[in-house]
Amino acid sequence: MPEAVPREDRADHVILVGDVGGTYARFALARNGRLLDTPQRAERAAFADLATACRAHLSEHGGGLRIDGAAIAAAGRVQGGRIAMTNADWSVDPATLAAELGLRERRVQVLNDFGALAWSLPSLAADELLPVPGGGAARAGRGAPPADPSGHRVVLGPGSGLGVAALLRTAQGWQPLATEGGHASAAPETALEHAAVALAAARFGRTSWERLLSGPGLALLHEAACLQAGAAAPAGGAAATLEGCTRGDEPALRAARCFVELLGAFAGDLALLFDATGGVVIGGGIVPRIAAVLPLDGLRTRFEAKGRFSGWLETVPVGVLASPFAALRGAAVAYRG
């Protein structure tokens, strides 16, 4: 029998951590699960590939440090130890990246971006989570429900796509579970939701939650609202919808309210699936921008609208992630193991 290889102590390693999405790539340096420098964000399309983006950050921020490893989170499913990104034409391959950066392959870790966010959840400070108001607790005059510190947790977030992961409490400690839950079939309820699902199904053959709960999904909901109003849908994607909300444009506002409600419905399903007594966290850049022009009460209402389990869901906290770099911290924690 071959001799077991002792587990490497990585606490003192200085590493590059990355969080690569369809639109933006974020990088920082880290040691022992903590970030060492101010994270930087750049448009992913500004770089030819992942290695080029990594080298650019190290060149500007490495400061002569010896880089011992890397932990890169990316938007896609980890298969065979690598990621072919879902909403971008990049691949994340440990062997290739190690060769490009002069690292040992076993010191390059690849993980799903929402898996990295799940790793970060226990370290979030109180001011990094903004509670979503409303729902049964508010109607009863109670404050936001407290999280069970040892309970399972869920994190989801609409951006270029729709990420979903869970953080499960086991006898061995926390165990992240990255999923492709955003590609499950959507469940419309209102007339506008049904209209948007019909549009998506006509174009793509089926309608997943990601087709509705993403930047392109917000634009699709806006298009459906315009069709119902007999108006032409504007070009410009989600940015045009959000800009329309600031002007008080009614189809844009209907689309944004619908988006918030659908997000609540999906988040409530995830809380039931994972028994998320530790709470549900909503990441991504879209919800904070909607919250700047609309209340999020509809999210909490649809989150709890689950029949016989509505009372239990009133006790599950829901928060919006206020830290744009939490996935980098999670990647650092995952590398340390």
Percentage of residues in strands: 15-25%
- Bulk shape: globular
Largest sheet: 6 strands, mixed
| Alpha carbon gap, first and last residue | 26 Å
User: What series of H and E elements makes up the topology?
Assistant: EEEEHEEEEHEHEHEEEHHHHHEHHHEH
Number of distinct helices? 13
Average pLDDT value?
Answer: 93
The counted number of beta strands is: 15
* Domains, number: 2
Quickly name the level 1 CATH class of the largest domain: Alpha Beta
Segments where pLDDT lies below 50 for 5+ residues? Answer: 1-5
Description:
It contains 13 helices and 15 strands. It has 337 residues and is an alpha/beta fold. The strands form three sheets. Strands 1, 2, 3, 4, 5 and 9 form a six-stranded mixed sheet that branches. Mean pLDDT is 93; it is low at 1-5.
Short description:
With 337 residues, this protein is of the alpha/beta class. Helices cover 39% and strands 21% of the residues.
